[in-house]
Amino acid sequence: MTFYRSNAVISFDYRLDGISIQRVSQVHDLGILFVPSLNFSPHIDFMTSKAFRALGFIRRHSTNFSSANCLLALYNALVRSVIEYGSIVWSPYTTVDICRIDRVQNSFMRFAGYCLNIPHPPHDYGPLSQALRLVPLSVRRDNFDITFIQRLIEGQVDAPRLLGELSFRIPSNTRLQCNFYIPTNKSNFSRNAPLIRMMHNANNHIDY
Q: Of 33, 40, 43, 131, which sits 20 to 30 A from 83 (CA to CA)?
C-alpha cells in the first residue's frame, strides 16, 4: 500500500524474491482500517456498522430490562468499547463523521429511555444523557487525547520518537497558559493530525 495525500501517486512495483507484491487498497492494522489517503471515514463506517450490530444484539435480548446499570454495562462493554477503540489515531474532525459516531450512542439512549421510561422530548438527548450519566463521545475522545499525552510525558508510554515530536512552549508571559506550541497548518488534515490535535486539546484543558 502506498500512502499519499496528493494526486501524483508514485506506484512502485515492489518485489520479493522476484515476485511482485500484491498492492491493496485497504488494510487492517491492530484493529484500525487504513486506506492510501489516510482518510479514516472508511474505518468509521466499519466501526459504526460493527457497533450497530452489537447494539442490535442488546436490543433483541434486553427489551424487558428495567435496570439502568445492566443496560449501561452491556452498552459500555459491547458497543462503546468498539466506537472508542484507538480513537487517538482516528478521532474525527468533520461534522459528518462526528454525527455518524454520535448516532450510535443516541440510538442506545433512545432504547434505554424506552426501557426505563425516561421522559424526554423527541430528538432531545439531554434528559437521557443526564439520567444515564453518559458523557458525550466527543468529550471522552478529548479526554483520551489528554490522558495519552500525559502518560507520554510521564514515561508511562514508551515512545521516545513520539515524545520528541511534542513542541513544548516556554512562555515569556506568566499569564500564558499554553503548554505546547501549535505549528501553523495549511490544511484540516495536518491541523488534525493526532499529536497536533492532542497538544491543542491539552492547551485548551483547564486543569492540564
A: 131
Lowest mean pLDDT across 75-84, 153-162, 198-207: 198-207
Q: What does the alpha-carbon distance between residue 152 and residue 147 come to, in Å, rounded to a whole number?
A: 9
Q: Return d(Cα 29, Cα 103) in angstroms, integer.
A: 25
Query: For 25-46, what is the mean pLDDT?
Result: 93
User: Who contacts 158 (Cβ-Cβ below 8 Å, separation ≥6)?
Assistant: none
pLDDT digits (tens, 9 = 90+) for 148-171: 999 999 999 999 999 999 988 776
- Give the span between the Cα atoms of 1 and 35, in whole angstroms: 8
| Residue 139 in grid coordinates | 468529550
Q: What is the largest CA-CA distance in the chain?
A: 67
The alpha helices in 20-92, defined as continuous H runs, are: 41-61, 68-75, 81-84, 87-90
Torsion 168-174-176-178 (CA) sign = positive
Q: Could you give the CA distance from residue 139 to residue 181 in angstroms, rounded to a whole number? A: 22
pLDDT by residue (tens digit) across 64-73?
Answer: 999 999 999 9
Alpha-carbon torsion angle 122, 125, 129, 134, nearest 10:
130
